Structures are given as C-alpha cells and as structure tokens.
Amino acid sequence: MSSTLTTNGAIIEVEDLHKSYGALKAVDGVSFTVQRGEVFGMLGPNGAGKTTTVEILEGIRTADSGRAIVNGIDVRRDPRGVKSIIGVQLQSSTFFDELQLSELLEVFASLYHRSVDAKALLHKVELDDKINAYFSKLSGGQKQRFSIAAALVNEPVVLFLDEPTTGLDPQARRHLWEMVKQFKANGTTVVLTTHYMEEAEVLCDRVAVMDSGHIVALDRPDALVDKLLAKGFHKERVERQATLEDVFLDLTGKALRED
Ligand code: ATP
Q1: Maximum Cα interatomic distance, the chain, rounded to a whole number of Å
Q2: 39: which of 51, 151, 174, 247 lies 20 to 30 Å off by Cα?
Q3: Nearest CA to ligand 1 atom 7
Q4: Which atom of ligand 1 approaches the CA of 195 most closely?
C-alpha cells in the first residue's frame, strides 16, 4: 500500500483526520505522528477534540475522512486488529465491584482470548498484595493503577491513558508518573491526555495542543516554552522556588497513603 506518511520510526501516523457531529467539526484536519517508544501528550481545553481523535485511533469511533495507521494497521480498514494491539485505560465505573482483582483480569484477558498471569500484572502496577481484594474496596489511586493493569493484559504496543491522574492526591499522582516512566523505559509507546500541564512537562516527549478541532502547536514541552518566551512573553510575578504542592509534600511525605 502506498503511503504519503513517513514510516521512519513512527508507530502512529495520522493524516488529515476529520470528524463532525452534525454541524460541529469536532476534529477538523488533524495530522501528526507518534514515534515508537515516545510518550505523546494530547492537551487542550474541554471540547477541543482530544477524546474524539484518540478514540478514532483506538478504533472506537470512525473518522469521516483522513487516515490513521497504528503499528502498520489502517484503523478504518481493521479496527479489530488495532484493538488487539493497543491497551486502553477504561474508566473505573465500568468495572465490576463484586469481583476480585484476579477475577477481573481473567475477564479482561478472556476478551482477548488470552490467559493472564494476574500476579505478575498486579506486580507491574504495585498491587501485589491486592490480588484477592474486591475492586470496590480499593482507594482512588489503586483503582487508577488497576485500570492500567487491565489495559496491559494483551501486552499492548501502544498504551492510551485518558486523564490517568485526575482526582488523585499529589503522592499518588507522582507514583503514577513513575509507573509511566517505567513503561517508557520498557519500550511501550504511551499516548496520554491530561489537563495537568505539570504532568505533561514531566512525562511527555512531545505534546499536541488542540483547540476547536485543530492542532495549534506540536513540539517538545521545553521547545513550546522557548517559543513563547521568544515572543516576548513574561510573567507579571516571578515564580517562587517552591509551590503549595511542594509544601504539601514536605508536610505529608512522598509515600503513598492508601493502604
Ligand atoms: P474534554 O477535555 O472535555 O474531554 P475533548 O477535547 O476530549 O474534551 P471531545 O470529547 O473530543 O473533546 O469533544 C469534541 C467536541 O465534540 C465537543 O464539542 C463535544 O461536545 C462533541 N462531541 C463529542 N462526542 C460527541 C457525540 N457522540 N455526539 C455529538 N457531539 C459530540
């Protein structure tokens, strides 16, 4: 198949994607590539089109036009093929509260016609001692980590994380950041949506900033900051060397508080 898209190291290639809901152009000509092993951030205000874009890549929604390739698979032609090689973090409300974590992982694995080593998987997200716990009894941070374990059952080549730290306390948020860094170190490509700019700065190799269905900027976080400064931007108030979050962590420590 001929392609005008680069295949040089790219695991995701998106070209001129469009998706409308009635008169609303939710995604309006979006193109980008994600490199293999990269942590790629999707940023933008509510309604910018991030979820629509990401769900097209996941084979959950169908684009009106344009092309999306994930690990060599054309998403429009083979959405099932794409679903079999990606990991998607489901929202915790969709889990069955009355099942133990090991049972839940078996349910997810069966969807992929796979067997699962629940112990090893829970170890990856540091829930070793919760293998027999019921989902409903987990803390917020533990639920988020479990949802990532569930997304790993099919050993995905691309992991999609949708606002993975929303609602977590600062300790749990940092803990999850370390986990994402570990996935990256192991070669997994991660596509992450977030409303936390600090999270994007810490984790993402590059970010796409979306607004009104368009990508308005795409670069490394530090390069985007440099460009803003080069335009003459300066803050009225010089930031202090510490934030209230630093005070919070100094007072309460960095250890997780959920067990
Ligand atoms: P958020 O940060 O709030 O999650 P987002 O950037 O992910 O926002 P999308 O969820 O992709 O944005 O939505 C983009 C636009 O498309 C919004 O105006 C939204 O209301 C609209 N939209 C999304 N899904 C549908 C749908 N199924 N039917 C109609 N409109 C939709």
Answers
A1: 58
A2: 247
A3: 51
A4: 2
